Predict the 3D structure of the following.
Amino acid sequence: MPKGSPLPKHVAIIMDGNGRWAKSRGLPRVMGHQAGIQSVRTAVETAREMGIQVLTLYAFSIENWKRSRLEVATLMNLLDEYLSKELPTLLKNQVGLSVIGRIEGLPAKIQRHLKEVIAKTRPGAKMILNLALNYGGRAEILDAVRAIGEEVAGGTLNAGAIDETVISRHLYTRGLPDPDLLIRTSGELRVSNFLLWQISYTELYITPTLWPDFKREHFVDALLEFQRRERRFGAEGT
């Protein structure tokens, strides 16, 4: 990486293209999700190697419940297997697990497993692996508005004191920096209801590479592109 050029503190990834990867090979969609697990490992390892502080992966959206029962069950099983198999590696690499989304809507077994892994990996973590599960950007904002409304109704918050800081404090991502870089695989040009509040000034990087084919070199290419950009945050450019 170029010396002196800043790396993103927080990278978010929309992991897209598992189904198309499987279809192009004449395989069931679930095989694409299984193949994508290796890309998750690679992304986590690369982010840790590069000194990224937070890596957020869009693992399961609220809209994904609309998929077939078989596909949903496969995704839940893969998540459960990932938590078991990757725990030693997460601990070895000092990667702490975090989760955002309506976690209470996940199967009870998954909820318990997530809590166990979070408790074991967060102490002393050097990087946060943040999984978006049963997540939707609009749902996150809605939940924040409801929580703020309850505080106003209860008299613990003055409506006139509501500002961006208050809203951010009530989001699922409270305590985490906003993403500096959002990567989307498979070439789709949309954000798919992901981190709608947080990505207001995030750099977007779209790659046609399908998620199961996303390797270390693709991640590095995204970081290099980030370093070449001038981030102005609304200020006048040079």
Observations:
- Helices lie at 18-24, 29-50, 69-92, 108-121, 137-154, 164-169, 216-228.
- The first helix runs from residue 18 to 24.
- Residues 168 and 174 are 6 Å apart (CA to CA).
- The radius of gyration is 18 Å.
